[in-house]
Fold these 3 entries.
Entry 1:
Amino acid sequence: MINFERFVLSNGLRLLVHTDKSTPMAVVNVLYDVGAKDENPDKTGFAHLFEHLMFGGSKNIPVYDEPLQLAGGENNAFTTNDFTNYYCQLPAENLETAFWLESDRMLSLAFSKKRLDVQRKVVCEEFKENYINKPYGDVWHKLRELAYSTHPYRWMTIGKELKHVEEATLEDVKIFFHKFYNPLNAILVVAGNVEAGQVKLLAEKWFGPIPSGEKYMRQLPEEPPQLAPRTLEVKADVPLDALYKCWHIYPRLDDRYYVADLITDVLGSGASSRFFNVLVKEKKLFSNIECYHLGSTDAGILVIDGKLVKGVSMKLAEEAVEEEIQKFMKQGVEIKELEKVKNKTESAMVFEDMSLTSKASSMAIYELLGDASLINTELEKYKAVTPDAIARVSKEIFNENNCCTLYYLSNN
């Protein structure tokens, strides 16, 4: 059980405090309710660009990292399609340094053409290195565009096109900042060797004077049901043919989400999974094959992702995958196999909660979903999944008309 106290400042900033006296450290985590899905379709990649800009200095702090390092701290951030998360860990006795740093950049990020040019160059190089010049680098661009016709999950956090970041102006960046980076759109979590009363006072001192801003009201287009299978064939200079298949699944708070999560574990998570045992070890059709989902807030996708053994035909490999899926739907899952993946899930969740930074970001994410106390009850949702639920939901998901297939073929 993770205990915490919840406060809301007068400007709308939500504050969660978790006290853990077993550590000398503290974590300050600021989650902003903005992800790649909130971008203008003609100006994508901005949420991720901001992850870089936020470390470029603010009005009173020219270099973000220096004061934090002097206080014995470290920091990082990550962007998803659903949100952007910033966190720093430092000795609890220096907690106020983190409040000063985070509040200053929320209030007054330093905008200049020079800073934008520097960070834009970094992001553009990242785009080229990981998504243009890397083998299979464009897979997710193509797979998302194939799977989503309407919802903004159809582009990645790095952006839909390189030119969107290349052409970003200082005015574009300022508009994005003032729309999303404000107390009404943020969640502050402080965890570690702290007292709730002390944290609340610090939050009011450093964040309280920041104007609340306007609450961002999300109105995203809903993805319509997929009514026919979709396929795409790509040829590229890659070492091995690869097969990608995906199916639409459920929003994060739908009870079937937990069932789908366990289905991916049974089919393709690790060396003891069905796919690995049959398709890699036994039939030797794939050098590696996995099944996973993207963990997104809105309705996401379940993915099968496999690299074929050289010389194996795509037709044979795909038929073998289909055969395993049909067998799974027909025979279902035994209690013993289901308990094994449930235990694996429980271990992963417990292990994650041992890290102070993971605990703080998880609390922020659950609060964003609507209730931070989900951190204490979500495991029960997994434990409640039955073999009947697995059978029912797998039949819903693995519907031929719900499937998108990308054949990624080697030129070699």
Entry 2:
Amino acid sequence: MRKPIPTEHWEQVKLFDWAADRPELDLMHAIPNGGLRDIRVAARLKQEGVKAGVPDVFLPLPRGGKHGLYIELKRRKYGRVSPDQLQWLDALMREGYACAVCCGWDQAREVIEEYLRGDK
């Protein structure tokens, strides 16, 4: 029997569990743009400024000449980056942010560790 592929939610929970005991990551936070919502809730969030395609995770620490690190977190398999997400990532990189699309929390952990060392 095949093991199920972890969901994007599970991957993000694991990433923040790993980050919880690392003081240098205290400012890292999730941007809750995704997910299915009731139409009224979606309309309210849009009025409040929620925008499609914004990456899932932001680490607002400057390193290596970058203003901060944005991560679009996907499942380990079958995750796709939408056109809106690609536009956001491109725009953020042009503005001096580091950006990455990570498949799974362990890849995101590696990207964060490299970023903190100034490698990325």
Entry 3:
Amino acid sequence: MLRISLISDGKAGDLVQLRGIADALAQKAPCEITSHVVTPRALYALLMPYGPPDPRDSACISAPWPDIAIGSGRRAVASLRALKKRHPQTFIAFLKDPRFARDE
């Protein structure tokens, strides 16, 4: 079973896009889809997308590791980067301009 993790800051437009992609993947193969909403505190939010993720949002970057992580929204960038660093086998997709390391 394919594990898919959706990471966003909870904006409706981001959630709809993430859910649409996850549902399309689920039609092709059995999937376990998990949604995570990151809510960084003020200092961490100011540093986004360049800074570290808020430790309070660590649930989305811990085991069980997803096979695919899809993110949207600049506050999700730090969590996706941390997830890729902790578990390099996870395929990362970001739906908008991350404003950080565009070549990765």
